[in-house]
Amino acid sequence: MTVQRRRPVRNLSPRFWIIALSVVAAALVAVFMTIELRGNLGYVLPRRAIKVGSMILVAYAVGVSTVLFQTVTANRILTPSIMGFDALYVLIQTVLVFTFGGGLVLSMSEPLRYGMEVALMVGFSFLLYRWLFTGGGKSLHLMLLVGIVLGTMFRGMSSLLQRLIEPSEFIILQDLFFASFNNVDGALLGYSLIAVAIVSVPAWRMRHSLDVMSLGRDTSINLGVNHKRSVTGVLVICSVLVAVSTALVGPVTFFGLLVASLAYQLCSHFSHKAVVPIAVLLGIIALVGGQLVLERIFAFDTALSIVIEFVGGIVFLILLLKGSLK
């Protein structure tokens, strides 16, 4: 009698996972939009739609940017946050509160503050690439090292300024450091969708080149890929996606690494047309499902980003100890 062995998870086709995760994500979105739906529907439904839209956008931006960034750096542990994006966001908020005061920052026009944050973060990454990236693998490693150093410097400057401000101002500042989907402005969400859609077009057109680049720099060059131009384009796309996501809701440092690592564990082959959708769907499930549990079970007793970072840290350590991340 022949005993059939259970198929390993990674032997399941990517199409199966995309369909299954899409069903789960759609179900969670439907539950989030309709659970305990009462009162003025003309007010409640648009608010929930904005919240869900912001979570989907963040899941998409972080998932896509992390997978693409790991491809060009040939490292499954690095994420765009290693370039100092989150630290720069914290520094921007700290400088604003230190200079103008918490009350004025909170009363500042949302589009103005959003545009300023996006411009500063994208401008920072553009200058970093222009200065460091010369086309060789060595310069890419130098860029990553400088990103770590700059991130440490930004955190140090933020810590110094935070010690100099008033305690009441520091309380206001702390609220800006954690990702929040509860007070997203609908207009800002629209601007973010436009920016993400614009950079998604070249990202989609590069999917075949990205598959070749995942084989390594020398191999991709031998196969006809313009490595310097492709890597520069990917880094600019990643900078826009991360900047828009961070400026919209705040930093989610560990989230991209979590969804990208799980996507690689589920996917039987590493084609970007399979890995990227799986990472995005996992992100949607994590954010919408997490927010649903947080609101209905824990009654907003903690921030969703804290829970995600905690769970992501545990999952990352498990994968690392098992040797799954190379």
UniProtKB/TrEMBL annotation:
The reply on keyword Cell membrane is: yes
Membrane spanning segments where?
16-37, 49-68, 88-107, 114-133, 139-156, 176-204, 234-262, 274-294, 300-321
The keyword Ion transport is assigned to this record: no
Protein's membrane topology = Multi-pass membrane protein
| Keywords of this entry | Cell membrane, Membrane, Transmembrane, Transmembrane helix, Transport
A Pfam family cross-referenced in the UniProt record is FecCD
The record's listing under InterPro entries reads: ABC_BtuC-like, ABC_transptr_permease_BtuC
Q: Where is this gene product found?
A: Cell membrane
At the top level, the lineage of the source is: Bacteria
**Where's it mainly located?**
membrane
Q: Its family?
A: Belongs to the binding-protein-dependent transport system permease family. FecCD subfamily.
Q: In its UniProt entry, what is this protein called?
A: Iron chelate uptake ABC transporter family permease subunit
Upper classification of the source organism reads: Bacteria, Bacillati, Actinomycetota, Actinomycetes, Micrococcales
